[in-house]
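Protein entry
_____________
===
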Amino acid sequence: MIPDPFNRRVRLVVEVRDENDELELATSVFTAQGWRVRPARTGDAVGTDDGYTGLIVEVPLRGSRLTARSTACERLTSLAARRKIDVWVREAKLIRPKPAEPNTTYHVHHKVPDGAGPALRWLAEHWIAVGGWDLRHTLHLRGEYSEEQRDRALAELERRNIGGAPFDPDVHDIRTSIGPRPRDRSADPRRGAILIAGVGAVVLVSLACGMVLGALTTPWRFLVLAWPAGMSWPVGKWVSANEPRPWLVRLGIGCALVGGLTVFGFFWAGAQPASLSRQLAGVLLTLLFGFTVLGLWYALSESWFSRNMQWFLPVLAAPLPFVLPWAGSFLHAIYLEDRFGVPADSVHVAFYWQYAVALRPLGLAVAFSLLLVAMGGWARHFNVQTGASGFVRWVLPLMVLVAVLTVTIDALDGVDRAADRAMETAAEGRRPSAYFGLQGELFCVRPLSPRIPVINGPVPTAHPVLSFQASGDTVWLWDPAPSRGEDSSRHALRLRAEDVQLVSAHGRHC
């Protein structure tokens, strides 16, 4: 059996009852899972209890290294319990990959001509230091940069030619890419932690200085520029410490990094007129977005979805052009017919508004569903599904269904809230806000004869009425007067356009 894609390897020392049948059964069962199984050798120095023998089982897993060992043990013991195999996990160890060997990349560039003047030489040296005048030829050597390694690189380039312009030591030279000095992996790990803390402090303080500069108006705010001015040199020196470079290049690198962070903070503060609480809410929303994106990656990568995405997405997206207009017309019909008593087919709405009104609940439903799928992805990353597979297989889909139904109910409530706001605004004599292409207008009705046919009349002439379409043979009006009862759909009036004259109204009286 080919194991599933994995990024962790856990090696287990397993004790099995020292019987040939038990050993063969355990080996065949574990091997069928795609696990590597071998007997414990003398060099493994595995001590077992009496009546047991040792096996070395390697379990490949996908997910976090924090839960890899416990997950591997649980999978093996659960499998052994189902197959009634007498085993005992004596030791579990996460196999870490060998650290990458440090290497140095040398870039071939033109030398400064011997006859160049001081100004031209100065410009050429600085241009070469920032990556200019290269031949697009690189050499990669194992190990960290040193003068001995540099001489070895020059000798290797001089004696070998793989095509193109050959390396000429009289006109060519080599340099390394700009970067910090390689860190000694055998050094005290506390130095690495201090370095990370220092880099984080520089980034945060530089951003804070820019935010203070953009948020305040007092002249004292320019004092915060002392931080980026003072940190540009040490930052540039640290970033370009892997090879000696001109001091102006180092200073420019530091100014670009520290100054860029400060400028970003300045523009961020200037573009945020909202209060600090609103900005904090924006930061939390950004963190939630990042949580969702990473969770979706953990949930969908190397999964059934990723393996069948080429046909699953087209099948999922194909009904949208037909479902969205239907859902939009359904919401428009609820707004007009259920709340205002006006037939939906009597009001013309542009087709794009049918898409727009349906996209909001659809977007919310998709967002909630993706958030729940992201939670399942984090559960998969930390191997929660091993001990709680029912949550992932049954509870999570039910939660997605509940979220979709909740958003659907909220969309229907939103239609009611929008209709209530429009009714209250019309009763106050003001033009109500549009609801995705449905724009109501206030009119005063002037009958053209003393007796006109009206359904659900009489026609009010002392106060304005609401109309969503003031053209056509039949006119539907909505009377905001509370005397017509609590059922808002009974406020609708139907009459012929040739019997009345509609005049734009402003205020509560005609």
